[in-house]
Please model this.
Amino acid sequence: MKYRRLGNAGLKVSELGLGGWTTFGGSIKDAELARQIITTAYDNGVSFFDIADVYATGEAERMMGAVLREFPRHTLVISSKVFWPMSDDVNDRGLSRKHLMESVHKSLKRIGTDYLDIYFCHRYDPETGLEEVVRAMDDLVHQGKTLYWGTSEWSGAQIAEAVGLARQYNLYPPQVEQPQYSILYRDRVEREILPVTASKGIGLTTFSPLASGMLTGKYDDGLPEDSRLAREDWLRESWFKEEKRELVRRLKPIAAGLGITRVQLALAWILRQPGVSSVITGATRVAHVESNLKAVDVELDEDVLAQIDATAPPKQ
Model:
């Protein structure tokens, strides 16, 4: 495994992280399988484990936390997130000071740790003033509940405003943004997010690097009945389109020419971006982890990157 700084921070994270979205507590309910997946990742140098309170309504935090508690805490970088409703209560959502202060305690209890390394604002909250959010996150850092805080799926302008407020009032600024980023979803990050984060020393921990499984090639010939896109309508509507499937098919000979899989090509392609600190991966089998790990040793030269750009060009 290789490690990168979280932007300009001293904290280092593994180039590949392991996330809990849709898997732990969701598609994975077997505690022993979860243990095998998480332990395999950890034993191979993965230090960054990404969760959120809303993943399986707290079950991802509980399931991953039960395994992570077995490892020395100083060897882990654990993140969680807050924003989405956790109940029907009117205040059990968003980024108000009340919800932030209450939610972090609930997450810490479910995970079984005294502090988070990173606490993400899972979306921008238009109903809460940004100064309130930045001051509350600064307080959580001072209280030792989290060491760093970040944003997820915020716009470049929103990130820049948060940094500006933090500097104006001498508060801790966001240190990391977590956007969706993949060969099939690149323009927003490259056009809007990276110009801001790179200039302000903010790292990226990207999610959905395989575009909900599209980049694995499993959808080349159709829609498998037991697949994620078959189960989740909203994802199928976004990804299961012939032009995207054809693009993924065209990546196959590029990967084959390097002696790697399309999964490893997709992960290595994100890691070629110096603004990325870590790529958050998902896994439902130990074999997925083992395959993903090989991507950190893949070097893509300019000719290969040009081939990928020709296949999946960024918008001009």
User: Anything to note?
Assistant: Strands lie at 3-5, 12-14, 16-19, 48-50, 77-82, 116-121, 146-152, 176-178, 203-206, 276-281. DSSP finds twelve helices and ten strands in the chain. The first strand starts at residue 3 and ends at 5.
